[in-house]
Design brief:
429 residues; mainly alpha; 21 helices; 1% strand
Length: 429
């Protein structure tokens, strides 16, 4: 354990502050903050920051949720999550269709990838990263009024992340310090945590220097403008196509409430970013479109989303794209054969009429209240059985496990799920 100037032992938090002082100071010299104070920060830079931090917090908070180290669990709790606040801010700016900054996006994704990999190999590093990001709640007290003034924001609109803990910032920080200082770490572990914190400060400095200033050619549309957690896959370069894809994702989401119940807001973001990626496929040869759609269908079906949902998504997407740019309607319709292929694969095992009959029997068995709360469940069950017979091994179990969870559904519902699956298997060819 390190000692202070007069030989007293330093607490863990004091060690972290001393070890990261230089890296923290360098971050604060980034031109981003000077431009903000001078009311000269472009909206692309501020929204780019929100997207970048969403990607970083998304990875970090998921790693924290999955971490089994009791020391980390004693420090971290769900009330410290910042991703919901960042997403709230991004929803506020969504109507403005703010473009991405390529270099800043690359820096953010590189940081997120690094955190994801190292959190698996060295989970104790999470403590250092928490220190950096939790400490930003103190800096937010200074930054928030600057952003409000520079971007003419009122209340918490676009400022939810910076508002954070509200009037309890100092109390929450004191409680966090207490939990950190109560940890029993060896000198080597303390140094490991301190290095992790310093490294993250350095990566954030790279990010903020990419956010401002930026070159005009850096402005583009990337998947992070739709879903900061989606990685690096392509999206349309025409903002009208991006907006049409987002609408299509939302319309499919609304048609099947199962999505929201199971996957929540994070699922909605991936629904949008998946639709945006699909919207780029019409430019490819038919065989390549079909190959990519089949691949995505298998991935999603193994995660609890039968290929029927992807078929519907494709059909809605073509409608929305054609409505946005009518002159390219025939181009967008290049996606429809892939939707037909998904339907044909299902029909090899169960017809639409058979699945509709199964769905009707399911709704009668669970009653009007539950069938209204989870409409189309019978359709999903029948489609999942067809997917399984088509060779997607996890198609049924990935759906069944969630739909038969006794903490979520009553016994009558669970019995109806099992009966519908059994009946679908019996009727299938």
């Amino acid at each position: 354990m390190k000692t202070g100037f007069f030989g007293q032992q330093l607490s863990l938090m004091e060690e972290l502050k001393a070890a990261t002082f230089s890296a923290h100071a360098r971050l604060q010299t980034a031109p981003f903050f000077a431009a903000l104070a001078a009311c000269q920060l472009p909206l692309e830079s501020y929204v780019g920051q929100l997207r970048a931090l969403s990607a970083i917090h998304g990875v970090l908070e998921q790693a924290l949720e999955n971490c089994s180290d009791e020391r980390i669990a004693s420090v971290w709790n769900g009330g410290m999550c910042k991703l919901p606040l960042l997403q709230q801010d991004l929803r506020y700016f969504e109507p403005r269709s703010v473009a991405d900054l390529k270099e800043a996006t690359d820096a953010a994704l590189k940081t997120a990838d690094n955190l994801r990999l190292r959190s698996i190999e060295e989970p104790l590093l999470l403590l250092g990263w928490i220190y950096v990001l939790e400490g930003s709640t103190l800096g937010a007290l200074v930054v928030r009024p600057l952003v409000a003034r520079a971007l003419l924001l009122i209340g918490e609109e676009g400022l939810a992340y910076l508002h954070g803990y509200g009037t309890t910032v100092h109390l929450r920080w004191a409680q966090y310090k207490q939990r950190m200082n109560a940890l029993c770490l060896s000198a080597e572990e303390r140094e490991q945590v301190a290095r992790a914190a310093s490294d993250l400060f350095a990566q954030l400095e790279t990010l903020y220097r990419a956010l401002y200033p930026f070159q005009p050619e850096s402005i583009t549309y990337l998947v992070t403008s739709i879903n900061p957690e989606a990685g690096r896959h392509p999206v349309p370069t025409d903002v009208r196509e991006v907006q049409a894809a987002v609408r299509a994702g939302d319309l499919c989401w609304q048609r099947f409430p199962y999505y929201e119940h199971r996957y929540g807001e994070r699922g909605r973001r991936f629904s949008r970013s998946d639709a945006a990626w699909i919207a780029t496929l019409y430019k490819y040869p038919p065989a390549q479109i079909l190959q990519q759609v089949r691949w995505l269908g298998r991935v999603l079906a193994n995660r609890g989303m039968p290929t029927l949902l992807l078929q519907v998504q494709l059909e809605i997407l073509v409608e929305e794209l054609a409505a946005a740019i009518s002159g390219k309607k025939s181009d967008y319709e290049m996606l429809l054969p892939a939707a037909s292929e998904l339907s044909a694969a299902r029909h090899k095992h169960l017809t639409d009429e058979q699945i509709a009959a199964l769905a009707g029997e399911f709704d009668s068995a669970v009653g009007p209240q539950w069938s209204a709360r989870f409409p189309h469940t019978g359709l999903l069950l029948g489609a999942a059985v067809a997917d399984g017979l088509e060779g997607i091994e996890g198609a049924v179990d990935s759906l069944r496990v969630w739909l038969t969870d006794a903490t979520r559904f009553p016994a009558s519902w669970i019995a109806a799920v099992e009966a519908t699956l059994a009946q679908a298997r019996k009727q299938a060819r």
